[in-house]
Predict the structure.
Amino acid sequence: MPAVPSSILGPVRDQFLALLPVREDRHPLGCHNPRIADAVVFDRLVQVLVFGCGYERVADEHCSATTLRRRRDEWIALGVMEHLRLLVLTAYDRMIGLELDRLVADGCIVKAPSGGESPVDRAKQGMKRSQLTEAQGIPLVTEPAPANVRDHTLLPSTLERYASLEKDLGPLPKRPRLSLDAGYDYRVVHDGLADRDIDARIVPRGAKVLIQTDGRWVIERTNSWMNNFGRLRRSTERRRAIIDFFLAMASVIITVRCLIRRAWTHYRWDTRPRTPRIR
């Protein structure tokens, strides 16, 4: 049984493989071991992401753990997964429409027991993700950082990455509304959002406000979607580039799932699922 439903994994895999450059076999004798198919490696990396297991657990006689790591690093150097994430966002915006006039941001802390250069804090044994979504919870930006970094200090870099989406999504809405919880109620945040011409809706510190206020519940749902992936719920990677790779892959799967659910009532296609409820 695949880690992701075939209605999601199939189109994601096909588009990912289409982005890979053509590989030329330059071995002078042509007698080396045949290269493992990219589709096989991609499916194994999806299993690593979903189940959160080690590479050795999904490796077998057809594909070794070393091959998984080497191919992963090769794709990271090419930046293919991030390219795929932007393509999926563009497709969702074209078919359904991203509600970018209303944004929501929040932080989420997960376990990260490994060391290395990954954005984790040894004192808290964790990693923080600064998540930015549109009004329906589609992930736009996911910024990893050490767990001891406060949410409001990650907001500028998160918004910078959001502004860079303009070259792929086209002109962004002027003066969007950004909903934030009380962890962002600081003068520097208010001033920074005013300089960016963003309408800030920040819950005052000490006030008891329902999470449904200003649609902030969607960011909690998106964080829950992200934490459903074992590799993100408990990060064991030691390099920042690998964490970004799996974050982009998770965003692709989440966005495609939401695209199929929303498109189910608007479009018809040959492989259309029987029900919009896709797990």
Summary: The first helix runs from residue 6 to 19. Strands lie at 102-111, 126-134, 139-146, 177-180, 199-202. The longest strand covers residues 102-111. DSSP finds eleven helices and five strands in the chain.
